[in-house]
Amino acid sequence: MIAQHLPILQIVLPLMAAPVCMVIRHPQVVWIWATLITFLCLPISIALLVQVMAEGVIVYELGGWAAPWGIEYRIDKLNAFVLVIVTAIGAVVMPYARRTVDTEIPVSRVYLFYTMLLLCEAGLLGITITGDAFNLFVFLEVSSLSSYVLISFGKDRRALTAAYRYLIMGTIGATFYIIGVGLMYNATGSLNIYDLSKIIPELGGSRTIQAALAFLTVGLGLKLALFPMHMWLPNAYTYAPSAVTVFLAATATKVAVYALIRVTYTIFGTVDILEIVPVQDMFMVMAVIAMFVGSLVATYQVNVKRMLAYSSLAQIGYMMLGLSFDTITGVAAGIVHLFNHAAMKGGLFMALGAVAYRVGGVRLEHMAGLGKKMPWTMASFVAGGLGLIGVPLTVGFVSKWYLVQAALEKGWWMIAVLIVVCSLLAVIYVWRVVEVIYFLPASKVAQEAKEAPLSMLIPTWVLIGASIYFGIDATTTLDVAFAAARALLGDGG
Fold it and tell me: What span, in angstroms and rounded, lies between the C-alpha atoms of 268 and 486?
């Protein structure tokens, strides 16, 4: 009987496990407990994805109350895929976190760190699984509030400023989102996402509904750091503890992109709102600017963590570009890039965490000559960098190939050229790091460096290995992405 309750278990496990960390308090025991919980969440999400692919949408009514009066969890191919991304990253980050947390977080706060990490995962899973627009807001706040605390744990005092800036921007985003939900509720009398998708087509021309879409889009745009609403992201990724940067970079923005897909394609998808309001053109312009600005600014950074943060802006641009095409190929390219970017960027930030653990910093001067001292760590960085560029046999190539294909299907040659040019910009900033680690003499700190411990190397290579494996054989991820895109757009595209 437990199989039918997997949707609620997916949320309840990390949500109830978080307060237990406050009771345990012992650093090592808390880590074991948190790791066990994340390991349990992963098979649940995989089971849900397998079930959805085989049998179709799963509807789980909370407390036996039928929707739209009660809250329901509605799992389809898209959010089952996102659940797997979040739980997989959570399960890989926990073993990795132990060493970095020992050096970056005071012992007296370690239990609080794991409490917040579990809460953040619970919030992200809740956003993904819920079928209720207001419930999504609640989980958005759970994940955001825990993220602010996690970022503030960074050793550098600037982590506090970064957390504060994220708090301000996140609060504005959440306010915009809830205003949008309020306007929708005012016009429809419903908060159930599936129910809204049936009611809103009759009200598509209504100013209230169009205003709701505007508020929801801006609110979620702030959460996913879509240019020019990205100002919180570079500092948050740069100054947060290593494990937090890995987790947030690989999951938080992906879940926000998912929420935006859910709003635009599920709630408003049947009213051609992308044509009534110029959302599609707006997404495309912002995505292309994000791709260029993110890549260009990344080429000037001397802090490699900050460089990868700006690279993330460009990658978010690729995801949004795929959605703006409003075709099955384009949307599938955007969806598959959620997974591909999580694997690449998670692995890259893990490699940097290992560098910070051994040499105490991740500026270019710290990394000079590390290629010989930390060969496996640096090899993982190069492999992840090749993925960012989009070299064949990496997941980055798969995403960009289908984005170019989607642009050519529409006859938009210029967009296809821009995608390729942005990929070439990635060559510049990845090469800067490669040059420093392999072709410069070792710095003073690097001369004393040793290879990263296995507890950090193995999780790093799990993600980098996934980015190579799914670059060579992308059948599984593409099948899910195309199935999700067809479900969102209808087979006609």
Answer: 16
The closest of 258, 224, 228, 421 to 331, measured between CA atoms, is 258
Residues 6 or more apart whose CB falls under 8 angstroms from that of 108 comprise: none
Residues facing residue 132 across a β-bridge: 192
DSSP secondary structure, 397-418, as one string? HHHHHHHHHHHHHTT-HHHHHH
pLDDT in tens, 185-221: 888 878 888 888 778 777 766 778 878 888 888 888 8
Give the SS3 label for residue 144: helix
Quote the CA–CA distance of 250 and 85 in Å, as a whole number.
Answer: 8
Spell out the alpha helix ranges (H) of 325-412.
328-359, 370-373, 375-389, 395-409
Question: What is the average per-residue pLDDT within 80-86?
Answer: 89
SS3 for 390? coil
- Give how far Cα 449 sits from Cα of 156, 359, 373, 375, 410, Å: 22, 6, 6, 11, 51
- Integer angstrom CA distances of residue 289 from 218, 297, 320, 343, 470: 17, 12, 11, 24, 28
In this structure, the number of other CB atoms found within 10 A of the CB of residue 16 comes to 12
Instruction: Identify the three-state secondary structure at position 439.
Output: helix
Backbone angles phi, psi at 32, to 5 degrees: -60, -45
Contact 216, 177 (CB under 8 A): yes
Better-scored residue on pLDDT, 281 or 472: 472
Q: Which of 336, 342, 341, 345 is nearest to 475 (CA)?
A: 336
The model's pTM is 0.89
Element (H, E) at 2: none
Domain extent listing, the chain: 1-275, 278-493
CB 87 within 8 A of CB 38: yes
State the Cα–Cα distance between residues 332 and 401, nearest whole angstrom: 12
* pLDDT tens digits along 385-439: 888 888 888 888 888 888 888 888 887 888 888 888 888 888 888 888 888 888 8
Tell me whether residue 142 is exposed, middle or buried, using C-beta atoms within 10 angstroms of its C-beta: 0 to 12, 13 to 18, 19 or more. buried
Task: Report the alpha-carbon distance of residue 218 to residue 200 in Å, rounded.
Answer: 19
Is residue 2 pLDDT above 80, yes or no? no
Grade residue 276 by pLDDT with cuts at 50, 70 and 90: low
Q: Which two tokens stand for residue 479?
A: 């099948």
With 80 as the cut, is the pLDDT of residue 263 above it? yes
Distances (CA, A) of 330 to 50, 290, 321, 401: 24, 17, 8, 11
Could you give the angle at the alpha carbon of 116 between the alpha carbons of 113 and 121, nearest 5°?
125
Residue at 474: amino acid letter: A
